[in-house]
Amino acid sequence: MREEFEKLAATGKIEGKHVEPLTQLVEGGCCLHRSWGFGKIKSVDTVFAKFTIDFPGKPGHTMDLGFAAESLKPIPKNHILARKAADLDAVRHLAAHHLDLIKLVLNSFDGKATVDQIQQSLTPDVITEDWKKWWDTAKREMKKDGHFIVPLKKTDPVVYQAQETSLQSRSLTDFRAAKGLKARIVVVAEILKAVSDLSDKAAAANEIIAVLNTDIVAYQRTQPAVALEAIFVRDELCHDAGVPPTPGEVTAAQIWLQDGIKFGPLVETIPAAKHHRALESYREANPERWFEILRGAINFVSAKLAKEFASLLVAQGKLNLLKETLSKLINQHTASSELLLWFGRERNEDFVDILGPEVFRAMLTAMERDQFQEKRSNRLRDFILEDQGLISELTASADIEVVKDLTRALKLSPVFDDMDKRSLLARLVKAHPAVQSLISGEQTKQDSSLLVSWESLERRRIEYQELVQKKIPANSKEIAIARSYGDLRENHEYKAAKEMQKILMRNKEELEAQLARARGTDFSNAKTDVVGQGTIVRVLDLASNQPETFTILGAWDSDPDKGVISYLTPVAHALLNHKVGDEVEFERDGAKRLQRIEHIEAWQAPVVAEVAEVAA
Fold this sequence. Notes:
single chain, 29 helices, disordered C terminus, alpha+beta, SH3 type barrels, elongated
């Protein structure tokens, strides 16, 4: 095609400088446009001096040869983009050979490319599924191979070099080039991932450990957290390389036991990935007092670190001490928002006996306290809003009066805006319908008072206490135990416990609504001039001439064998407010009855004083 392009240049259809780039475009058959991306040249029209190119979304696009020479970049046939266009299946097959595919990509970018460039070249058409898994495997193979330089920083390019260098040489070169202890720790962490592949593990380890030990001495007082990190990687390298510790080297215990070391602030500055190792080393350094130090510091660290504290305490058999600390902080409303954030997220069976409404009250107090701090955090507030089940779970076994107090506290809290507050109050109402009137300020017919005898009120209260103090907590433990069996989809014990939870919670809601409306009485002020609550009524059935006696008491009083009926029953409704001599018609047992009121007297409660005293 070069000759054809030279002819076009000679006739003035293209410029002479366009001959070489056009020749390269035709030889490669592929190109890149800065806006349209990759293109495949389908044909060349030398008569009209045009290319026909397929771009993504622009198939069969025509372009003047002169414009093409200026705006298109030639793509050689061995470029990853050209190889994909020519035979995508073959390139996908090559993905099983990680190094060959990476080499192809790097050569397409002049021997080096960033991780992002590599990923963009291969996903989603070549690596169709788990890129991270594929790339992790590729990195391990490249580090073993002597032709690839894999940088520590993701933004630096991966480089392919023809001259092979050993993993040991590359690792030590990287370590020697690192400036400062922090940078050296990062390099050693990478070396540890492939230490078994080093040609002389002991020699490499001894060189690295000698430098680390010198740095650790220099850092142990000025930057103890960095010194601890170095000690951890040093000790791990000793173990993996099979070399003994250096006599006289600084240990983690020596760092922890230095004068002036403040445990909480120091451990906070250690990277989260090293928290567990740091706490274990502290436990080893302070075998007699470590758990007391952790208990004292747990209220002053981040949620993530609080979780690590708790995990270590539980693993070492200190669960009861931890619960005692948490309970005290929560009940005194001195728990920090970070501690409560961890505790709210955790909510496992270990803490079921202290997970209650007071936790939410402590959360409100902590957030209100944070409002006056310069570095306040909204993490706890965001968690409360996002966790749809938090409020209902924390108040599941709470007495209705406690829930009402919590509702009032939430309404007055300044930490939520109006919309968020309405959302949280709606969750409370859904879990406890009896608090609806506190929120709406209205008293609906549904919420009207129920007149009940003291005896029946006490029975209902005992039933409620039995439910919230025994049955619901027992069910919560059953759910927690069943959850620990795993795979909730096939966990029949878990499903059964959750179904029972629904029943118990429905019963609780009903009892709360009833108790909220209940008004106890001994009926001592009942009038006898008309039928009312607290009266005994003797009637005569005018059809059968048979007498019958009804004792009309409270909403929850019923004893058919003794003629005791609730004032809410149809019979009582028909009799109420009628006088002696009145004839009353009502339906009973499917038939209409006509009865005349013969006598009205006041009902006397048995042991009235004792019942009233107990109910009060």
